[in-house]
Design goal:
- The structure is a single chain.
- By secondary structure, the protein is an all-alpha fold.
- It is built from two helices and no strands.
- It has one domain.
- It is 92% helix and 0% strand.
């Protein structure tokens, strides 16, 4: 630091008769050169640097604003999608409930229809059974009637055979009596 102040102090003590020479102290000359360059840069580059920083700041702010808008739109779309999902889930639940109710109604309908068909089948079975019983009873009656008729015919035939003998004897007896009376 002492070299820096010495170099500034020595500037004030240069002889005006001027001899030209080189300053071989690198640190003091570099420091002076750097101060001059920085001063010029700050003086002339302040506007350019300020413009560059302002442009960069605007771009960053625009990017932030755009990303905030995109974020808000994404949040809105997410909320809409969640609302649609809830609505679809409610509709699905309603369809499921309605489907279960419809299945239950169809089940009750099928049970009722099946029981009605079963009653009709049982009724037909009962009618068929009664018909078969009547048919069997009629067949038995016919068979018994036929047997009785054949028995009666047999009895009548045997009676007639017996009666024929009886008639024949009666006739023979009557003829024999008539012949005796004639004699």
């Amino acid at each position: 630091m002492k070299n820096v102040t010495d170099s500034f102090v020595s500037l004030g003590h240069w002889p005006s008769a001027g001899s030209f020479g080189f300053n071989t102290d690198i640190f003091s000359t570099n420091l002076i050169n750097l101060s001059v360059v920085l001063g010029v840069l700050i003086f002339f580059g302040k506007g350019v640097l300020s413009d560059l920083l302002d442009n960069r700041k605007r771009r960053i702010l625009n990017t932030i604003r755009t990303s905030e808008e995109l974020r808000e739109r994404a949040i809105e779309q997410l909320e809409k999608a969640r609302a649609r999902l809830r609505k679809v889930e409610m509709e699905a639940d309603q369809f499921r409930v309605n489907g279960y109710a419809e299945i239950e109604r169809e089940k009750v309908g099928l049970i009722t229809k099946t029981s009605q068909i079963l009653e009709i089948v049982q009724h037909y079975q009962l009618e068929t059974l009664q018909f078969e019983q009547e048919k069997t009873i009629n067949q038995i009656r016919e068979l018994v009637g036929k047997e009785a008729f054949e028995g009666a015919v047999g009895t009548l035939n045997s009676s007639l055979n017996n009666d024929n003998e009886l008639h024949s004897r009666t006739i023979d007896d009557n003829i024999g009596m008539l012949e005796e009376k004639r004699d």
